[in-house]
Amino acid sequence: MLSDYRQRFGEYHSELHREDFLFRSGRQNSRDVAHIHSEYSDLFRLSTVEELRAKFNDVSESRKTERAAIARLIAFALEGNLLARVREVSGEIADYEAAAKIDWDGERIHFHQIEELLATESDRQRRRELHARRADIAKGTQDLLAERFEKLRIGAVEFGFESYTMMRRQLRGVDLETVATKASQILSKTESRYVSELAPLLAREAGVYLDEATEADLPYLRRYARFDVFFPREQMLRVYRELFANFGFNPDKQTNVELDAAVRAGKQRRAFCSPIRIPDEIKLVVQPTGGQLAYGEFLCAAGKAQSAAWTSRKLPPEFQRSGDAAMPMAWALLIENLLLEEAWLTDTFGFVANAEFRRALSLFRLLELRREAARLTYELEFHSGNLTSGIGERYAELMTDALRVRVDGADCLREISDDFRSADFLRAAAFEAQMRDFLKTQFGSRWWTSRKAGEMLIDLWNTGQQYSVEELAAMIGLGELDFDFYCTHAIAQAF
């Protein structure tokens, strides 16, 4: 039974990722996954869960790796069963957002394009108008989202868990409350530095003072095109090839990684990675546009692609793609954050006077960290059932306190993830900061030029998602994940 289940588990993920790749790369006009969910619905039956539990109980406690692998499959099956219960309402939400449009400058703009418009709109009043129109559309899904989350809660209780939060905690082995407590340190310890850096940057780049800034200003601020001349479109592929060549391998000769850099109508603007068959068929997709934001997204996707491409073929599929979601995030951040390295910017782009750029980018990293810390607190409060009223107000309060710009409550339900992604991001960021410091200690300040560093990374990537970020940190000598280290070392060093 286990052998057949694992095979279908792998095939299910491959088909989903292939469909996603074809749509987001502009190779087909729609993403049709209904037939995939139908064909593999047997993976999520409660009778299948009971069979997996029986297999788990049959395995001796001394065989910890096999028990951990089966536990992953049980978690996958239960989560899939729960998502199947809300698939219809999820489809209604997706259909509503896909059809929603606004009139702007004589054109019909899709809901999901508004964020990109905000990132390029230099006029603050027009940014506010765009954001207000987006908020009106977002509010239209709140009843459906509330229905969806209630079904998830009911399903978790029917499975025998005390709450939805407890289900996620037990299935994935992440103490969400402890992460939230540690994350709160980020908000308190970085408050003064964050505000002192944000205020002048907002005034200079977005034309607004801190006390009048809103969330509508952040996409434009984050785009930060002041130094985009150093990040030309035509150099993106060279940067990718040279980076990994320094680690000791030629990405052009990787038969398992396809780099899709063609300009194509319908292709998603943001770079992404589709791990169709790990490690044998990995798609790295980029629409070469240039600019620091596009480079960051490309490096992030490249980190995910390479960590998947070097995953061991000997691992069972549940250790290849169904483990700790923080692990691939951490490798993505490690590669993306090369943009914070003075020497890397100088050597790679000839960008010598880069202090102002790195300072701004460090602020953006901190902004994202503070956003996710506040989001985790909000998600835990929401799923605990303590927010019976005033949900939008509480969301706005937490996000405004964290970001220090005015945030409304329009996204109070849209921003809630099914999987507490905020906790994974925070854990990934803590691991990445300690890992980066470790690499500098072991291989020097230009660790990205070291083949031995590359060999070490490949050895770690080889483990796929078998280990959590906490387990891997302990195994390689990083110690416990230290959020205080991030606040006192990584942030202080950046500024």
Layout of SSEs?
Elements: H1 2-24, H2 34-39, H3 46-58, H4 64-85, H5 87-99, E1 101-104, E2 107-110, H6 114-120, H7 124-139, H8 142-158, H9 164-172, H10 176-206, H11 218-223, H12 236-246, E3 257-260, E4 272-277, E5 281-285, H13 292-309, H14 317-321, H15 326-336, H16 342-349, H17 355-384, H18 391-403, H19 421-443, H20 451-461, H21 469-475, H22 483-494
Helix pairs in contact: 3-4, 5-8, 6-7, 10-17, 10-22, 13-15, 13-20, 15-19, 17-18, 17-19, 19-22
Strand order of the largest sheet: 3-5-4
User: If helices are DSSP runs of H or I spanning 4 or more residues, what is the number of helices?
Assistant: 22
Secondary structure: helix percent:
55-70%
How would you describe the shape?
globular
SS class: mainly alpha
What series of H and E elements makes up the topology?
Answer: HHHHHEEHHHHHHHEEEHHHHHHHHHH
Number of strands: 5
Supply Rg: 22 Å
Instruction: Provide the CATH architecture of the largest domain.
Output: Orthogonal Bundle
Which band does the percent of strand residues land in?
under 5%
CATH fold group of the largest domain: Neurolysin, domain 3
Count of separate structural domains? 2
Largest sheet: 3 strands, mixed
> What would CATH call the class of the largest domain?
Mainly Alpha
Q: What does the average pLDDT come to?
A: 94
Distance between the termini: 55 Å
